[in-house]
Amino acid sequence: MQKGIQWYTLAMAAFFTVAVLASYSDKTDPVSNGLNHTLPQIIKPVNLDRDFSFAGEPVPMDNFDVRERLDRELLSNTYWQSNTILNIKGTYRYFPLMEKILRENDVPDDFKYLAVAESSLRNAVSGAGARGIWQFMPNTAKGYGLEVNDDIDERYHVEKATEAFCRYIKDYKKRFGTWTNAAGAYNMGGTKMAKEIAVQRVKNYYDLNLNSETSRYVFRLIAFKAILEDPRNFGFYLDDKDGYAPIDNYKTVEVKDAVANWGDFAAEHGTTYRMLKVYNPWLISEKLTNKEKKTYAVKIPK
Fold it and tell me: Distances in Å between the alpha carbon of 219 and those of 102, 161, 227?
């Protein structure tokens, strides 16, 4: 009997506890308010009712296929928050330099977003062998004046690689007629782009039926442009102090001979091997053979 009373008491206590919590949750819990989610977030579609362009060329938003392809890239990058916020941080470091070089070479400013699509503004390495912020393949890099060997890889030299990119994309613009087509060709290759144009009998990127990656590529550039031009409109709130600062606090040392060990070189100039490589990622070996007696400008952090 006593045991039965104890169980009854415990059951009633549990009942009243649940009742109290339910009464409280009615006011605060979204499920209790008739909502079908329990996560504290609001997910909204991206507004497509505006004009979009790339490199001064309008995007035909009256075409439903174009709208939906752009919608996919805007949503993917708006709600891939970690990657997008890292991209925003990276723009503080690299965009001022890129904007200057693009302007000096008469290449539209919007092509800085191509570097975001290619590498997320990092010295990335692809499985196919493309490297650097602009993702040059070895032969293409050499063809546009970049040095690539066992000691030096100027695909990682942001200034020189950006200069080479400008020459490369201008050649594609001349070949394919528009900057939009040039961007598509940069992704899939000029030979393949020319073949698709010939087979499909159309010359406009938006009308071409291309492989999945290239079909999405220009839309990714447009999405990056929209988000990075106005991050707060897409829910990303950063102050200037949150961005990665440009790496511009350095002095330059000319190197004309071989270097037996960059670690020794770094120590002689008051820095470390690690920081020497951070400032000069194009130095890919622990040494410099320099058989041709070239002159290299090596950055030394102050």
Answer: 21, 24, 12
- Which H or E run contains 250? strand 250-255
| CB proximity list for 5: less than 8 A, separation 6 or greater | none
Q: Which residues does 57 contact at the CB level (< 8 Å), separation at least 6?
A: 178, 179, 180
Q: Is the separation of the CB atoms in 252 and 299 below 8 Å?
A: yes
Q: Is 37 helix (H, G, I), strand (E, B) or coil?
A: coil
As a CATH number, domain 61-232 is: 1.10.530.10
According to DSSP, the β-strands at 53-54 and 296-301 are: unpaired
pLDDT at 290: 96
Q: What is the C-alpha separation between 96 and 160, in angstroms, rounded?
A: 15
Q: How far apart are CA 152 and CA 288, in angstroms?
A: 8
Q: From CA 186, how far away is CA 77, in angstroms rounded?
A: 21
**pLDDT tens by residue, 179-233:** 999 999 999 999 999 999 999 999 999 999 999 999 999 999 999 999 999 999 9
Structural domain boundaries in the chain: 61-232, 250-301
pLDDT average, residue stretch 25-43: 57
CA separation, residue 251 to residues 11, 92, 267 (Å): 77, 21, 15
- Shortest CA distance to 236 belongs to which of 118, 127, 5, 81? 81
Query: Which residues have C-beta within 8 Å of that of residue 43, sequence separation ≥ 6?
Result: 79
Beta bridge partners of 254: 297
